[in-house]
Each structure stands twice: as C-alpha cells, then as structure tokens.
Amino acid sequence: DAGVTQSPTHLIKTRGQHVTLRCSPISGHKSVSWYQQVLGQGPQFIFQYYEKEERGRGNFPDRFSARQFPNYSSELNVNALLLGDSALYLCASSLEGQGLYQPQHFGDGTRLSIL
Amino acid sequence: RKEVEQDPGPFNVPEGATVAFNCTYSNSASQSFFWYRQDCRKEPKLLMSVYSSGNEDGRFTAQLNRASQYISLLIRDSKLSDSATYLCVVNGDDYKLSFGAGTTVTVRA
Predict the structure, then answer these.
(1) Nearest CB to A42: which of B32, B95, B101?
(2) Which residues of A touch B101 (CB under 8 A)?
(3) I need a surface site. Which of A108, B1, B5, B84 has the fewest CB within 10 A?
(4) What is the DSSP string of A24-61?
(5) Which of B41, B45, B91 has the CB atom closest to A98's CB atom?
C-alpha cells in the first residue's frame, strides 16, 4: 500500500507569493495533520483535519489555511509568503483523529524555499 | 516553558554500547507518547509507542514516568544504523502532537 504522498517535493517561491501544498493520506486514514519543520527544530503543529472538519490549529498566523476533501486528501495554503516560511512542510495521516495510541505516519515532505 | 524538552546531544557512542536519554513534557493531561526517529533531511518515522508499563521492541526500551512527566528511550547494542535524531512526541487532549527538538545520536565504528 502507498504511504502518505506529498507534492511537490521541492518548491521555490519569492516573498509575497502564495503556495499550495498537497497531501494524500494512507488509504483508510481519515485524519490529516500538517507540520512545519525548520532546521534544527522538531516539527511544529499547524492543522489537523478529520472528516473534512478542522479539529485543531497550532500557533500560526491566518496566512496559513488548509482544507480536506471528501477523499480525505488535503491542501495547505500559505499566503503572503515570508522568508521565515522557508521550511520542510510535513503531512501526516492517522486512522482517526489524534485519539489515544493513534500514531501518525508522515509523508516525505515538501521543502519550501522563499527567496 | 516548551511543551516537550529534550537534551539535544549529540550522544557519540561506539558500536555495541548502550545509550539512553530522556524527554520531559509540561502538560500533565498528556495521554499518548511516542518516539520517532528522523534521518537527516528525511521525514520522521515512528519508532515505538510508549505505554504506561514501559515497553520493549528489540534493542529499544521505552519508559514513561507520569509522576515526574518524563519519557526515556534506551538503545542497547548500538548499531551504526541507529545514528539519527530521536524525536519525543506527546499527544495531549487537544488533537495535536507536540514534538521535542530531538536528540542526536551518532554511533561510531
């Protein structure tokens, strides 16, 4: 079975632009979460979606938005890009919402560079 | 105070050695605990879940101390392939995973 797939793998943008990142969860997984990881730090939680509803949101500005589609795939949108948005963006899926003992499985990530 | 704190290391150990490190968490309501490993510029991969009674998976042993709010990971008989960053992950009751910054382990021949 395919794991979590993300696209694109790499992306270069300039300040002020917007970006859309895409994620397909493992088949059967209904929950998708997004994380931002900058060099030298652990992943920081951005959003979680479950059954197309936002279930949790991390401490990120409103420039960050996301949605989940009926097939459980998800998009992360970032507007008005800043240099500090340069990071590895990780998508993770799990069987349900982040309930007890439900580990998440990560995709390879999208490496976003802002010039 | 950070939600999850880890000793960044690095822990440099020879092959065959035992290495152990801890992670502390601030939210006493946290309910699920995991160790992930992350290789350089790769995605995190689940190493093991951590259960209240402690658990072992081959050469890896995880312990949870709720009273002191820390989790530990012990690696026995270290292999070169164990070289990685180990991320402590805690799930509270608010639908998010909190990651530590990671502990770097380097196993040398």
Answers:
(1) B101
(2) 40-42
(3) B1
(4) EPPTT--EEEEEEE-TTS--EEEEEEETTEEEEE-S--
(5) B91
E strand spans, chain B:
4-6, 11-14, 19-25, 32-38, 45-50, 55-57, 60-65, 70-75, 84-91, 97-99, 103-108
Among all chains, which residue has been given the structure tokens 């490496």? Answer: A111
What is the band of A104 on the pLDDT scale with cuts at 50, 70, 90?
A: confident
- Cβ within 8 Å of B, A 94-113: 97-98, 100-109
The span from the CA of A42 to the CA of A33, in Å, is 15
Query: What pLDDT, in 10s, does the model give residues A18-45?
Result: 999 999 999 999 999 999 999 889 999 9
Structure tokens at A92: 């993770």
In the predicted model, is pLDDT for residue A84 greater than 60?
yes
| C-beta separation of A87 from A37 below 8 A | yes
**B48-103 per-position pLDDT tens digit:** 999 888 899 999 999 999 999 999 999 999 999 999 999 999 986 666 789 999 99
The region that residue A55 occupies, defined by phi over 0 for left and psi between -120 and 50 for alpha, beta otherwise, is alpha
In angstroms, rounded to a whole number, what is the distance separating the alpha carbons of residues A91 and A37? Answer: 11
* Residue A84 vs residues A16, A69, B22, B26: alpha-carbon distances, Å: 12, 28, 30, 27
Q: What type of residue sits at position A68? A: Q
